[in-house]
């Protein structure tokens, strides 16, 4: 397992994405699937950057591992406010342009591109687990 | 992300290369806002060189499309790579923002 822990700020997005890119590449992912992994990682991270620490700064840790040779598992840990990203309703993807909400799509993308997404709160830590089958 | 702006006979052609993510997409929104402020209302966005887009990128396209709707303008997308096309499809944006196979087709449709 590899991990990267940095301040939960948008300025660190590129470093996290490079990290997940390298991990997925080492596990044999490429092309469209590799991009989907980056997409899920970005959406989860940006959510944490924006909402996890409303009263100041905190950290976020990303772990990547290949389990059983076929499951690429990304775990994202933060110690911000409890936030079950998965409990939010899906956006209306059929609404007309005037009625389209600006936002709400990120979590929906994670659910759509990943094979499995889980959320848990462990003591004071939010853990989001995103799984891609190789 | 790099933006290249070219004035064509029927409208403004904006070519986007690289990645539209949470860091770079505000720049797209800002530049398009500037062009709209200068009186340009008909846009073709060439996405042939765009390798990646996230919800932040889509959001900046949507904000631009809403601005253009207010001034009776148009934004047409052209030449999307497979992964970018997929993101547009998942979001349902494909049904609210016109997508064309080529720049020529989009320009003709303006």
* N- to C-terminal distance of chain B: 25 Å
Number of strands of chain B: 5
CATH topology term of chain A: Heat Shock Protein 90
Report helical residue fraction of chain A. Answer: 25-40%
Q: Superfamily at the CATH H level of chain A?
A: Histidine kinase-like ATPase, C-terminal domain
List the main descriptive attributes of the protein structure presented here.
heterodimer, A: 134 residues, alpha+beta, Heat Shock Protein 90, globular, B: 110 residues, alpha/beta
How would you explain this protein's 3D organization?
The complex is a heterodimer of chains A (134) and B (110). In chain A, helix 1 (13-26) packs antiparallel against helix 2. Chain A has one domain (2-133): 2-Layer Sandwich (Heat Shock Protein 90), CATH 3.30.565. The mean pLDDT of chain A is 92. The longest helix of chain A has 21 residues, at 31-51. Helix content of chain A is 33%, strand content 29%. Chain A has 134 residues and is α+β, with helices and mostly antiparallel strands. Chain B is of the alpha/beta class and 110 residues long. Chain B has a single domain, classed as 2-Layer Sandwich (Transcription Regulator spoIIAA), CATH 3.30.750. Chain B contains four helices and five strands. Chain B has a five-stranded mixed β-sheet. In chain B, strand 4 (74-78), helix 3 and strand 5 (99-100) form a beta-alpha-beta unit. In chain B, helix 1 (25-37) runs parallel beside helix 2. The longest helix of chain B has 16 residues, at 55-70. Chain B is globular, with a radius of gyration of 12 Å. The N and C termini of chain B lie far apart (25 Å). The relative contact order of chain B is 0.19. The chains are: A alpha+beta (134), B alpha/beta (110). At the A-B interface, helix 1, helix 2 and helix 3 of A face helix 2 and helix 3 of B.
């Amino acid at each position: 397992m590899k991990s990267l822990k940095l301040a939960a700020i948008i300025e660190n997005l590129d470093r996290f994405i490079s990290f997940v890119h390298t991990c997925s590449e080492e596990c044999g992912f490429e092309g469209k699937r590799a991009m989907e992994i980056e997409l899920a990682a970005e959406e989860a991270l940006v959510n944490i950057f924006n909402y996890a620490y409303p009263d100041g700064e905190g950290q976020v840790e990303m772990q990547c591992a290949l389990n059983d040779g076929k499951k690429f598992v990304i775990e994202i840990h933060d110690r911000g406010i409890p936030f079950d990203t998965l409990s939010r309703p899906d956006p209306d993807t059929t609404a007309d342009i005037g009625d389209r909400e600006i936002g709400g799509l990120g979590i929906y993308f994670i659910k759509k591109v990943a094979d499995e997404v889980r959320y848990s709160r462990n003591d004071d830590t939010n853990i989001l687990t995103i799984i891609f089958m190789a | 992300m790099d933006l290249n702006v070219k004035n064509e006979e029927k409208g403004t052609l904006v070519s986007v290369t690289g990645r539209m993510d949470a860091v770079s997409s505000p720049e797209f929104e800002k530049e398009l806002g500037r062009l709209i402020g200068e009186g340009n209302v008909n846009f073709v966005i060439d996405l042939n060189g765009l390798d990646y887009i996230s919800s932040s990128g889509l959001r900046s396209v949507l904000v631009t499309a809403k601005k253009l709707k207010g001034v009776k303008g148009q934004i047409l997308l052209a030449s999307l790579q497979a992964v970018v096309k997929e993101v547009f499809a998942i979001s349902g944006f494909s049904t609210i923002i016109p997508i064309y196979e080529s720049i020529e087709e989009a320009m003709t449709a303006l």
